[in-house]
């Protein structure tokens, strides 16, 4: 499998390129609209054509590029079937793998950050979205988030994967790129080290996080598979504007 990890710096979002060397078809996991030109350039440089986009959940901190990439390339839009988005072409369900060429993705329903959140396992890698971050996890205080559900998603699904499985999250805010199931089980300060459900609930309840600054635009835009609002305040226009530089991770 051809693999690249790319980063969009405004929201610190990782986008993943998964390419089939036999067919030349590719998947983009969690593409961001302001980095789509960069993503297409990377695909072209690798000799790949975009077959589909795949989001882990309805994002609150950026606009997905799924719709714009479909308009540009004819790619299909895949997303968790749980969310029942009318703009999707493929609804991903647990137990029904998504296949593109030789790439087979197993969807894992991992609610807690959002109720429709999915992680995707591909061989020795798992793309954990916001359910499991490096030394952390996504917040659980909006979009039907639930700390108890997230604890079970991580401890009963993700932490039961082989220890050597590589963890690729949707975000990192400290310049880290990859972890492993063994590492997160051992040292994740919220969920690792044998944390109990009660301990995790106390940790999440004490975070006192500010209201997400882009959520009121991102969620409705992403329910349309990536619609940038026309009325963005000046301070938020960077979330939809094409970026002059969008570095590769």
Automatic annotation (TrEMBL):
Pfam families: Lactamase_B. Residues 12-171 form the Metallo-beta-lactamase domain. The keyword Hydrolase applies. One of its GO terms (biological process) is glutathione metabolic process. It comes from the Bacteria. The keyword Hydrolase applies. InterPro entries: Metallo-B-lactamas, Mito_Persulfide_Diox, POD-like_MBL-fold, RibonucZ/Hydroxyglut_hydro. One of its GO terms (molecular function) is metal ion binding. Keywords: Hydrolase, Metal-binding. This is MBL fold metallo-hydrolase. It comes from Ramlibacter rhizophilus. The lineage of its organism: Bacteria, Pseudomonadati, Pseudomonadota, Betaproteobacteria, Burkholderiales.
């Amino acid at each position: 499998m051809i693999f690249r990890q790319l980063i969009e710096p405004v929201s610190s979002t990782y986008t993943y390129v998964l390419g089939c060397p036999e067919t030349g078809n590719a998947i983009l996991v969690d593409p961001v609209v302001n980095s789509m030109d960069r993503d297409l350039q990377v695909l072209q440089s690798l000799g790949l054509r975009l077959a589909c986009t795949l989001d882990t959940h309805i994002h609150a901190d950026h606009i997905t590029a799924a719709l714009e990439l479909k308009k540009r390339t004819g790619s299909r839009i895949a997303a968790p079937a749980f969310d029942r988005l009318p703009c999707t072409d493929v609804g991903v369900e647990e137990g029904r793998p998504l296949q593109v060429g030789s790439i087979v993705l197993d969807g894992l329903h991992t609610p807690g950050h959002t109720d429709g959140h999915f992680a995707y396992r591909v061989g020795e890698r798992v793309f954990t979205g916001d359910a499991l971050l490096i030394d952390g996890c996504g917040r659980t205080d909006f979009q039907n988030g639930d700390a108890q559900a997230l604890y079970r998603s991580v401890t009963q699904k993700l932490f039961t994967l082989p220890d050597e499985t590589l963890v690729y999250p949707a975000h990192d805010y400290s310049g880290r790129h990859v972890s492993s199931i063994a590492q997160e089980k051992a040292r994740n300060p919220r969920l690792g080290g044998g944390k109990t459900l009660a301990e995790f609930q106390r940790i999440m309840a004490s975070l006192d996080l500010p209201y997400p600054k882009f959520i009121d635009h991102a969620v409705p835009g992403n329910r349309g598979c990536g619609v940038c609002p026309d009325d963005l305040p000046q301070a938020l226009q960077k979330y939809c504007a094409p970026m002059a530089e969008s570095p590769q991770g």
